Amino acid sequence: MMFKGEIITTATIFMGSLFLYWETFKFEGHEVYAKLGPSYWPKFLLILLMGLSVGVAVDAFRERKRGEAKEKTLKLDKGRLRFFIAIGLITLYFVLLKIFGFILLTPFFLIAFMYLLEERKKVWMICISFGITLIIIYVFTKVMYVPLPRGIGIFLDFSHLFY
Amino acid sequence: MWDLWLGAIQNVMNFLTLFCIFGGVLLGVILGSVPGLNSTMGTALLIPFTFAMSPINGLALLTAVYCGGTYGGSISAILFNVPGAPEASATVFDGYEMAKKGQAAQALGYAVMCSCLGGLFSVIVMILISPLLARVALTFSQPEYFALAITALTLIASLGGRGMKKAAISGVFGLLMATVGIDPMTGDPRFTFGGKALIGGINFIPAIIGAFAVSEVLARAEAGMKKSEVLAQKVSTILPRVKEILRMKWLILRSALIGTWIGILPGVGATTAAFVGYAEAVRWSKHPEKFGTGIPEGIAAPETANNAATGGAMVPLLTLGIPGSATTAVIIGGFLVHGLQPGPMLFMNQPKLMYSIFLSMLLANILMLFAGLGVAKVFSNFRKIRYSILGPCIFIFAAIGSYGIRNDPVDLWIMFFFGVIGYFMKKYNYPIPPMIIGLVLGNLTEISLRRGLRMADYDLSAFLFRPIAGIILGIAIVSILYSLVKKKPKVLEED
User: Fold this and answer.
1) pLDDT tens, B368-414?
2) A130 CA to chain B: closest CA distance, Å?
3) What pTM value is reported for the model?
4) What's the mean pLDDT when you consider all of chain B?
5) Does pLDDT of B227 surpass 70?
6) Chain A contact for B217, CB < 8 A?
7) Cα separation of B200 and B86, whole Å?
């Protein structure tokens, strides 16, 4: 186990729990439920989380003392870079989905994601991206009547041509 | 009695009704296996079509879709780590692990066979003792529901292995996430940070899809193409041998009983049944540490339990007119369009129809074997595709599956959030299943505890003095202590 990673993780859990615990004071409880108001259960869980995260951190220190923990420096290799690009790509897709709509954005997102995963056969990438998008649109909107994001403005009008 | 069965055979054993049953099962399996579509949606869409059919054909079609849909979710859960339906969430734990080991065909075989057995068992129970079971189920109150949820949560202790604290963190995190949104008792918003986005709470389907499927896609993106290629292989369903089923006979029987019983309880459906079935399989196993690593028992237990819940959920519907699950609530519509009111009077006025429904559900569960094999074969072909192409397609289906539940873009972000969380959990050895169990059972646990305590004037010990709740809680406490005592020597040995 990576010692640094363990400590960062447990510290994040502890600090996050502490922040959320502070947040529970904002819940407005009603008098009739005063004994077990809306913050009762979350507070109990957050105290548990904080206690457990301290326990895991103590275990990590003990393991390091025994020499079991692996020290690993965090560096930006090719794989990690691909991971961060994937995160960025997905974030961008979800942000732009509201503007451009499903039909316009999805094929390009699929092509970009396939390229990121080192697919290089262009014909396959294009055919599958557009094919999958059209199949999803047909099955979800025409057969099962599940609405898909349409986008705004001119993109909304464009999506109306298809679903 | 025999007259009624003969009448039912006469009603069901004709081409049109059999076609409706098989078509319904096939449609249900397909709907169940595609993330974002489910049997509830399918039955709702089919109700207008059943208007033109005879009551028997219409109801046979709807119940067949229900049975097929409950099984269908396991196909994508096993092959792609994406549960097609919420009922298949627990199947992911061992199903996908088996597929990763190159045993996808066997995993699919166990899933379809156990679904069939679970479904058949519950229909037989439904036929034999429906009215009695419905009356007992109505005596279940908040303390009993709380006891049931706590018993399922004790599974976390068994799943932890050496990292018990990490499993507990994962489980508590899941329980905490279930508190997000409007407090169901007081109506106060919790952890919404003043915005509207989280007011509806965290739906567990996008969370499950994110934690399993998106985290996997992210991990593969990091690993690169070489590692990704290993999983692409030819798969066809291999049904388990009779010997293998007999080896798991007690596990299957126990899961079927649990599933049927949970199905009968109003408001707790096949998803909870699958988790409790899985929890009990772990608890009773001689090798609990093997669960989650890809073993057939990990598929048999949830799949038997979730399909057993289909028959169970029909019990209160047919005997009392109370739906036991979301889909059976929709099926009530199928009765109403034909001018039938489900409930005790229906047994007296239309006994032949009731027995025809029983028979059609029995047939639906048997025909599920064939429909399941066919659909699994089509889906398994997708595994032959390179991951660099398959991965992005899985992501899009995961996104649409999450979005389709409430048509709310917030669910996309919830899926993504849990995808990233799942990625880091895998990286730092925090088990994901306890988080999902916590998230699924969180609401039930909190609400039944708070309501139960109000009923008992805030005296928790009163829970233990109710016979059913006391016994269930007692089992939970003993099982936690047992897993703690059992684990200690192992850890000490390894130390």
Assistant:
1) 988 888 888 888 777 778 888 888 998 998 898 888 878 889 999 99
2) 11
3) 0.80
4) 84
5) no
6) yes
7) 18
Alpha-carbon separation of residue A25 from B69, B82, B317 (angstroms): 43, 37, 43
In this complex, which of A98, A114, A125 lies closest to B409 when CB atoms are compared?
Answer: A98
Interface TM-score (ipTM) > 0.95: no
CB contact under 8 A, A91 and B416: yes
Considering only CB atoms, which chain A residues are within 8 Å of B189? 27
Using the beta-carbon criterion (under 8 Å), do A49 and B458 form an inter-chain contact? no
The predicted structure's pLDDT at residue B165: 87
* Most B CBs within 10 Å, among A75, A117, A120, to test the B interface: A117
DSSP A118: T
For the cut 90, the answer to whether the pLDDT of residue B102 exceeds it is no
Interface list for A 135-154 with B (CB within 8 A): 136, 139-140, 144-149
Dihedral class, residue A74 (left if φ above 0, else alpha if ψ from -120 to 50, else beta): beta
Residues 34-63 of A with CB under 8 A from B: 35-42, 45-46, 48-49, 52-53, 55-56, 59
Number of neighbouring beta carbons within 10 Å of residue B107: 33
Q: Does A86 touch chain B (CB under 8 A)?
A: yes
User: Which is higher by pLDDT, A108 or B353?
Assistant: A108
Helix axes B410-427, B432-455, angle to 10 degrees: 120
User: Taking a C-beta distance cutoff of 8 angstroms, is the pair B115, B369 a contact?
Assistant: no
How confident is residue B431, by pLDDT bands cut at 50, 70 and 90?
A: confident
Question: Which residue in this structure is represented by tokens 């940070």?
Answer: B193
Inter-residue contact B334 to B65 (CB < 8 Å): no
Residue B372: which residues within 8 A CB-CB, separation 6 or more? B29, B68, B71, B72, B75, B108, B111, B112, B115, B116, B237
The owner of tokens 């390009």 is A108
Flag the least confident range among A3-7, A134-138, B15-19. A3-7
Taking CB atoms and an 8 Å limit, are A147 and B218 in contact across chains? Answer: no
- pLDDT the model gives residue B476: 77
In sequence order, what DSSP letters do the residues of B165-194 get, joined into one string?
Answer: HHHHHHHHHHHHHTT-EE-TTT--EES-TT
Residues of chain A in contact with residue B388, where contact means CB-CB under 8 angstroms, are 114, 117-119
Neighbours of A116 (CB within 10 A): 18
Q: What is the pLDDT of residues B240-289, one digit of tens each?
A: 888 999 999 999 999 999 999 888 876 667 888 898 899 888 888 888 88
Q: Do B224 and A79 touch (CB under 8 A)?
A: yes
